[in-house]
Every structure is written in structure tokens, then in C-alpha cells.
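Supplementary material to the annual report.
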Amino acid sequence: AQTVTQSQPEMSVQEAETVTLSCTYDTSESDYYLFWYKQPPSRQMILVIRQEAYKQQNATENRFSVNFQKAAKSFSLKISDSQLGDAAMYFCAPPVGRKRFGAGTRLTVKP
Amino acid sequence: GAVVSQHPSRVICKSGTSVKIECRSLDFQATTMFWYRQFPKQSLMLMATSNEGSKATYEQGVEKDKFLINHASLTLSTLTVTSAHPEDSSFYICSASTGTRVETQYFGPGTRLLVL
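Predicted assembly:
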């Protein structure tokens, strides 16, 4: 089964600080992508970052970066210089298929 | 790019009526669209996968006669909740993609359905 596990229901970070959200996954596939999505209070799901499994280099999008550990099947999201607008639910998407998103991590940003 | 719209954003209906929700990919051709349901403070639950021109594939436990899905074109999929009941009240989200396995999904803004 293509499953993901987010073990942090809630996280909090001070504005301008760095926070890391964890995600582990399970797959037997060799070709897959990993995604982090953000869901702010508006409930619109927004793609944050994407990692291709065959690439060893960690993906980066401005203040967002990932720590991809393929052997450990770990895919954590690092948010640097946290901003108030980063407050949201963050979901890790399954590596293959679309069924089982992670349970989500609620990120609070303190001013 | 990669914008997905969903309409209506919220709808209130009476028990027993049917409600149609539209999902459109505005700037790309979506061979596959997905419909999710999200309960408060929970993750997304996949209801069905639809491919343009073919019947939708429903997840276990989802009544296909209750939740009718049509994917008539590469840019439009519709979800019709038939004979809606209060327990169907929820937040429904669609997403569009160019594939079913590893391709990026782009999500619509969601539809909040309230059945009285």
C-alpha cells in the first residue's frame, strides 16, 4: 500500500525561525514523486514542493526545502524564516496513487 | 498556470434534492480528475477517480449511485450528490492531473455542502 505517516499533529514556530515537519512513507515502487501540500484556513490545497525520487538532490522552493532520505523512506519539509502566512495544515501526499494522504500537521506561527 | 476551479463554493440544499458540483481545469488538459471528501479537522478521503470519457472508479464504501461522477471533457468533471441527506454535508474537493500515479495534482478550492 502507498501510505504516508505524519507523526506530528501540531507544530509551533516563532516567526522568522525554522521548523521541520516530518513525513515517512511506504512504497514498493521505484519510480515515484513526493509532494507536500499546504491547506490554509481558506481550505484551498496548495502545492508547496515536489521531490522526484530518482533525484538525490533535495528539492528547494524559496524558503521551503525537503530532506529526502530514500533508504529511510523519509520526506521532511523544512520551512525557513517562517512567516505568519505559513500557518496552515500541511499534508504529505502518497508517493504513488492518490488515496491516502497523511493525517496532516497543523502549523502555528507565533509573532 | 495549473489552475483548477470549482463551483459552487458553497451550497445549502434541502434533504432529498440533488446537488451538482463542477470542477474545471482552466489552463491545462486534465486526463484524470479526483474527488475527495474532507471532514472537519481530518485529512482528505478519496472518493473516486475519473478519466475523461470513461466511467469513474469509486473507492470502497463510496456509493456510486449516490455520488454520480461525469468526466465529459479534458477540462470538466462533475460530481452530483443525489437525494442528499444531512450526513452528506461535508467539504468536497476536486483535483486535476495529467495522470493517475505520480503526476502532480492541482486542487480546486473546494465546495462546502450543507444539507438541511
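The interface with chain A takes residues 34, 38, 42-44, 46, 49, 59, 91, 93, 95, 100-107, 109-110 of chain B (CB under 8 Å).
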